Please model this.
Amino acid sequence: MEAEGAGAPAAPEVVPVRVRRLDPDLPLPRYAVAGDAGADLLARHDVELPPGGRATVPTGLALALPEGYAGFVHPRSGLAARHGVTTLNGPGTVDAGYRGEVMVTLLNTDPEHAFTVRRGDRVAQLVVQRVARAELVVVDELPPSPRGEGGHGSTGGWSPPGDGRATVGPRTTPDGGPLTSTEMSTTGDQRVPGEEQP
Ligand SMILES: O=c1ccn([C@H]2C[C@H](O)[C@@H](COP(=O)(O)OP(=O)(O)OP(=O)(O)O)O2)c(=O)[nH]1
Model:
């Protein structure tokens, strides 16, 4: 027998979750393969997603997640890669105290093709995770860290349009400061989310 801590895989934590089946004819979500992190959520009814369209799809499930846990509604990579269909608010958060039906808000990002969801289709996956609650402690200075205030692409790693070269290090202004969102956009980097003009 393999010794604990010597490469033996730890058994996954198993958390009992009480479930109400709002549509008993719909199969329960299940983990498709041993080792999967997400259990597939099924659509309770048919939905047509036009190109660029979205819809909130019921799953026929209501949960009572234990305190200290949350469910995260993640997109399925196959739907995303093959059809451009993803979860709009991905991952959606299912709070431990939520007793309503778990819903999946789907977005069809394909600009040309509609996508039809049929009842029983596996449209998203639910990942159950432990979550902490933050107690916010106001301070004047934050402790230093290797990253500091660098973010939003400060470590580079993708090719800006035009020069065909991946950036390999932090993107900074000539005097070494971080790029502003305007400088990012004029150097071909992505804008900082949330800093667009209303
Ligand atoms: O993909 C999702 C996201 C959320 N929910 C449910 C469970 C969650 O507990 C509740 C509220 O979600 P959230 O807090 O994200 O929504 P909100 O827009 O902030 O609404 P609220 O004001 O109700 O908190 O809606 C889903 O069923 N699916």
Summary: Residues 150-192 form one domain. DSSP finds two helices and ten strands in the chain.
